[in-house]
């Protein structure tokens, strides 16, 4: 009898132990803010420069995926089904305010309940496009016509995302074009990574501080390089240089207006304005059609010079960009 009783207790203990194991595992799985040893943090960013920022801070701890591939524009891009599937496996998505993110958010929330979305524009005062695009104040059009076009823009119900992106009252999302603003973005990234890997605080902080030093050095290099050009105008196709121009004493004059290439009289106005400003160089991003820029360049006997604001190696790219602008405007 005693043996039978002990046997029954043993069986019950084994059963209880069996059912307690999955329960404990489930508890650990739910604790999504901690990484296991040697586990990489899978995360997404919108554009290539962000991947550079995250990798500089996270190092080998992060597995970064970029939604917008090289050659595509973040103004109109739509993620592929495979990218959406991969998003379900990620823990973090660092947004930066580019247009396609707005349409993407509802889809993400439907399929990825556990994905944490981190807004890296936090702490940054965004600049309206009507300020960043100095061309808005230079076109030879009356104020009445300007207001009429703006009103039509607001009342249109079927505007494309690109048009919304460049509405007069829209905010300029190109905050990565100013190294000092990248420092603010980097601080937001560091905070998010520390949440998932607090045990790596020393290494993450060291990486962060080194990145801050490099950004400060980059800022000073660009400032020194462009100081002789203060007050001059850079003629660009797409208005991506607003924050860059404001920080380094330049003016940005954009070919695009409301997200569209100029035609007819407006195109003639651009050509006239370029001639009046003694413009001989038009800076064009590879993500956009160059036909209009080439027409204007031909009319002003100038040249089209490529600049890629979406290149992954941010430090090297921005330094080269400043050098290209300096050499192009001085020649």
Automatic annotation (TrEMBL):
Residues 1-25 form the signal peptide. The keyword GTP-binding does not apply. Keywords: Signal, Transport. InterPro entries: Bact_metal-bind_prot9, ZnuA-like. SUPFAM superfamilies: Helical backbone' metal receptor. GO terms for molecular function: metal ion binding. Coiled coil: none annotated. One of its GO terms (biological process) is metal ion transport. Pfam families: ZnuA (PF01297). Residues 133-167 are annotated as: Disordered. Gene3D superfamilies: Nitrogenase molybdenum iron protein domain (3.40.50.1980). Transmembrane segments: none annotated. Belongs to the bacterial solute-binding protein 9 family. This is ABC-type zinc transport system, periplasmic binding protein.
């Amino acid at each position: 009898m005693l043996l039978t009783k002990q046997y029954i207790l043993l069986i019950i203990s084994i059963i209880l132990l069996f059912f307690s194991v999955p329960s404990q595992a489930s508890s650990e799985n739910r604790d999504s803010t901690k990484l296991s040893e040697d586990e990489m943090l899978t995360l997404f960013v919108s554009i290539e420069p962000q991947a550079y920022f995250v990798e500089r801070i996270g190092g080998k701890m992060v597995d970064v995926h970029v939604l917008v591939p090289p050659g595509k524009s973040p103004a109109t891009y739509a993620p592929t089904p495979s990218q959406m599937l991969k998003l379900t496996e990620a823990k973090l998505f660092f947004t930066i305010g580019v247009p396609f993110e707005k349409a993407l958010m509802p889809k993400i929330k439907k399929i990825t309940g556990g994905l944490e979305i981190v807004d890296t524009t936090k702490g940054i005062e965004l600049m309206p496009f009507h300020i960043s695009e100095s061309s808005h104040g230079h076109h030879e059009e009356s104020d009445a016509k300007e207001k009429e076009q703006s009103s039509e823009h607001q009342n249109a119900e079927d505007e494309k995302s690109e048009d919304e992106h460049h509405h007069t009252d829209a905010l300029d999302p190109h905050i990565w074009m100013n190294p000092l603003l990248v420092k603010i973005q980097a601080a937001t990234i560091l905070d998010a990574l520390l949440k998932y890997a607090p045990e790596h605080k020393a290494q993450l902080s060291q990486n962060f501080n080194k990145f801050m030093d490099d950004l400060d050095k980059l800022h000073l290099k660009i400032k020194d390089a462009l100081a002789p050009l203060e007050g001059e105008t850079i003629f660009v196709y797409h208005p991506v240089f607003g924050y860059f121009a404001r920080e380094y004493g330049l003016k940005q004059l954009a070919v695009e207006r409301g997200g569209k290439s100029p035609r007819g009289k407006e195109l003639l106005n651009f050509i006239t304005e370029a001639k009046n400003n003694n413009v001989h160089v038009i800076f064009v991003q590879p993500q956009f059609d160059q036909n209009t820029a080439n027409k204007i360049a031909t009319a002003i006997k100038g040249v089209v010079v490529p600049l890629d604001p979406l290149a992954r190696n941010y430090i090297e790219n921005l330094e080269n960009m400043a050098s290209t602008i300096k050499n192009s405007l001085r020649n």
